[in-house]
C-alpha cells in the first residue's frame, strides 16, 4: 500500500513538473491597429512542442514560431505575456483582449457576408452607371453609401458633376 501511494505521489510530481506554463497563452485575442483603428484577431496556438503566433487569424497571415524562454514565450527577444487573469495579451505593440472561437467565427461570417453584399452592389453600379441621368445617379449614389459595408470599395460609385 505504501509503495502504491509513493508511486502515485511520484507520478503526480513528475507530470506536474513536465507541465507547460505557456499553455495559458493559447487562445484567440482581438486588438486594434493604433494607426487605423482596424480590428485584428490574433491567435496563439500550439503545434506539437512549438508555440505559434498568428498575427491575423482571419486571413491566416503573419505566422511566426515563438521561442521558449525561462520567462515564457518570445519572438526576437520580444516577450509574449498574458495577464494574471488570462484575459489580456501583451506582445510588442499589441495589447489584445481574449475572445472565444465563436467571436472569430462570427467575424469571418460577417466578412464573407460583406463581400457578397459588396459584389452585389458593384454589379448594381456597373448596370446603372451608364443608364441613369446625372440627378438620379447622384441620389442613387447617396443611397448606395448607406448600404455599403465597411471595407467595401465600389469602383465607379462617385458623384457626377
Give the mean pLDDT: 87
Main sheet: strand order: 1-2-3-4-5-6-7-8
Number of helices: 3
> What is the succession of H and E elements?
HEEEEEEEEHH
Number of strands: 8
- From the alpha carbons, calculate the radius of gyration and give it in angstroms: 25 Å
Residue windows where pLDDT falls under 50 for at least 5 positions: 5-18
Range of helix content? 25-40%
- Overall tally of domains: 2
Strand composition percent:
25-35%
Rough shape? elongated
N-to-C CA distance:
93 Å
Major pleated sheet: 8 strands, antiparallel, barrel
Organism: Halopseudomonas yangmingensis
Protein name: Lipoprotein
Describe this structure in words.
The structure is a single chain. This protein is α+β, with helices and mostly antiparallel strands and 161 residues long. The chain folds into two domains: 21-99; 104-147. 37% of the residues lie in helices and 31% in strands. The protein has an eight-stranded antiparallel beta barrel with strand order 1-2-3-4-5-6-7-8. Strand 7 and strand 8 form a beta hairpin. This is Lipoprotein.
Question: What is the topological layout?
Answer:
Layout: H1 2-18, E1 27-32, E2 39-47, E3 50-56, E4 61-69, E5 72-75, E6 78-82, E7 88-91, E8 94-99, H2 101-128, H3 134-147
Antiparallel strand pairs: 1-2, 1-8, 2-3, 3-4, 4-5, 5-6, 6-7, 7-8
Amino acid at each position: 500500500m505504501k509503495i502504491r501511494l509513493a508511486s502515485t505521489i511520484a507520478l503526480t510530481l513528475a507530470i506536474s513538473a513536465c507541465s507547460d506554463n505557456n499553455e495559458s497563452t493559447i487562445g484567440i485575442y482581438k486588438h486594434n491597429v493604433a494607426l487605423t483603428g482596424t480590428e485584428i484577431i490574433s491567435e496563439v496556438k500550439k503545434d506539437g512542442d512549438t508555440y505559434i503566433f498568428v498575427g491575423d487569424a482571419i486571413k491566416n497571415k503573419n505566422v511566426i514560431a515563438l521561442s521558449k524562454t525561462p520567462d515564457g514565450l518570445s519572438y526576437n527577444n520580444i516577450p509574449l505575456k498574458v495577464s494574471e487573469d488570462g484575459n489580456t495579451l501583451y506582445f510588442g505593440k499589441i495589447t489584445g483582449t481574449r475572445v472565444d472561437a465563436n467571436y472569430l467565427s462570427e467575424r469571418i461570417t460577417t466578412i464573407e457576408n460583406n463581400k457578397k453584399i459588396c459584389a452585389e452592389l458593384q454589379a448594381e453600379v456597373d448596370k446603372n452607371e451608364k443608364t441613369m441621368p446625372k440627378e438620379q445617379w447622384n441620389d442613387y449614389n447617396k443611397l448606395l453609401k448607406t448600404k455599403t459595408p465597411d471595407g467595401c470599395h465600389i469602383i465607379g460609385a462617385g458623384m457626377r458633376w
